[in-house]
Design a protein that fits this description.
Layout (H helix, E strand, L loop, with lengths): L1 E10 L5 H22 L3 H4 L14 H13 L11 E3 L4 E6 L2 E6 L7 E5 L4 H12 L2 E10 L5 E11 L8 E6 L3 E6 L5 E5 L1 H19 L3 H33 L2 E6 L3 H4 L4 H5 L10 H15 L3 E5 L15 E3 L2 E3 L5 E3 H10 L10 H8 L15 H5 L7
Parallel strand pairs: 8-11, 11-12
Antiparallel strand pairs: 1-7, 2-6, 3-4, 4-5, 6-7, 8-9, 9-10, 13-14, 14-15
């Protein structure tokens, strides 16, 4: 069985102002405790326990966790905010009627139960497993968003079925014109277009320029966070559909390994100045990350393969061709969608990259008499130049 760890971000249901102010005050007290710990020598700090903070009204379990979190931050000189956190021994989740509730003792000697606002069906399934004991609870953290909404961050770990045997692999090519293209082996492809995302990024870029010229920098930051949230939502939707696509056909997902691509992909100044085409804003890793944990949860295998020449090779024979925008053209004039061709190459990857001289070798092989030939491997660039092409 494989292990899957998730963090559920659940808002409190109709949290009244008194409790919200209490959470805010306790967070400020907890932050002050963390900053006081930074003034203590590192060796002495590691020996401290909650008994050194008996004068603080926060529960001892929360204080002990704050001490551990402070010791883990070795380079921090001052905490702006230290959120309240506690381990799984000091809170419990249950279902009261139609509501899921969480009980914890934030103050010493006082324990309260508060309802949670649960929207997602997947969260409901995970919470049911946590209540029944099929999933193990981790830590609980109380935090507040910039809009003033208080959340309970609950970490959960569970056993998920190992990925079984698959009929084949679905290659997934990621890009900017098409956010993702998933193709069945020698079959049709499913496209997720990137036109809407490009338009969105250009719109946000224009608005940011206007705000920067008027020196409204707080509004610029707020706008950047909103753009990031929208892109995260889009990646969540696409990743869910990709995993379901693989599940429907009983296949695994293959991605190209794009680690370090920002350093290898060259961009001119015109491209970098356009938010729609700038690869620095390309959230390709997040999409793969979302696909991975969703695939593990349902038992769909997922792996990464080397990226070189997946976009430039012909999926029929591995021969290097020419990519021109959205189209790929093979050495024999064959044309197809470039992203679909790349996804086919990713899906049928068998452990090697196309040699650079293969195109030259194939052109020489096409002139050799097939009837008088023998079964052998493709000619190398040196051998292809030695083939006698003169008429008999």
């Amino acid at each position: 069985m494989a292990k899957l760890s998730l963090t559920l971000k659940l808002p409190f249901y109709r949290l009244n102002q008194i409790k919200a102010l209490e959470f805010e005050r306790m967070t400020m007290v907890n932050t002050q405790v963390a900053n006081d710990l930074l003034l203590v020598d590192t060796k002495e700090r590691k020996k401290l326990t909650s008994s050194a903070f008996r004068h603080v009204e926060i529960g001892s379990a929360w204080i002990n966790q704050t001490i551990r979190n402070t010791n883990a931050k070795t380079k921090v000189k001052h905490f702006k905010r230290m959120w309240l956190e506690v381990n799984n021994q000091n809170f419990e989740i249950s279902k009261q009627g139609e509501f899921y509730t969480i009980a914890f003792n934030l103050l010493r000697g006082r324990k309260g139960r508060m309802p949670l606002d649960v929207h997602s069906a997947s969260h409901t399934d995970t919470l049911n497993k946590a209540i029944s004991g099929a999933a193990k609870l981790g830590s609980l953290k109380l935090c507040k968003s910039k809009k003033g909404v208080w959340y309970a961050l609950i970490s959960v770990s569970m056993d998920v079925p190992d990925a079984g045997e698959v009929k084949g692999w679905i290659g997934v090519d990621r890009g900017q014109n098409n956010i993702a293209v998933a193709a069945l082996p020698k079959g049709f492809g499913k496209f997720w277009r990137g036109g809407q995302v490009k338009q969105l990024r250009r719109q946000f870029q224009r608005t940011r320029r206007q705000l920067q010229s008027s020196k409204q920098f707080k509004e610029v930051k707020r706008l950047e966070q909103r753009e990031r949230r929208i892109m995260t939502h889009i990646n969540h939707v696409i990743s869910k559909q990709l995993v379901q696509f693989a599940l429907d056909f009983g296949m695994g997902l293959r991605f190209e390994d794009l680690s370090g691509c920002r350093k290898t992909m060259k961009q001119n100044k015109k491209t970098k100045s356009d938010a729609a085409n700038n690869r620095d804003t390309w959230a390709f890793y997040q999409l793969e990350l979302f696909c991975r944990y969703k695939a593990i949860k349902v038992g769909v295998p997922i792996e990464s393969v080397p990226a070189p020449y997946t976009s430039k090779s012909d999926h029929r024979n591995g021969v290097l061709g020419v990519r021109n925008g959205d189209w790929f053209r093979g050495f024999d004039g064959y044309r197809c969608n470039a992203d679909w061709n790349a996804s086919q190459n990713i899906g049928q990857w068998i452990g090697f990259s196309c040699p650079l001289d293969l195109k030259e070798a194939v052109s020489a092989m096409s002139t050799v008499d097939i009837e008088g030939g023998v079964d052998d491997s493709p000619l190398t660039s040196v051998a292809s130049k030695q083939v006698d092409l003169s008429p008999a």
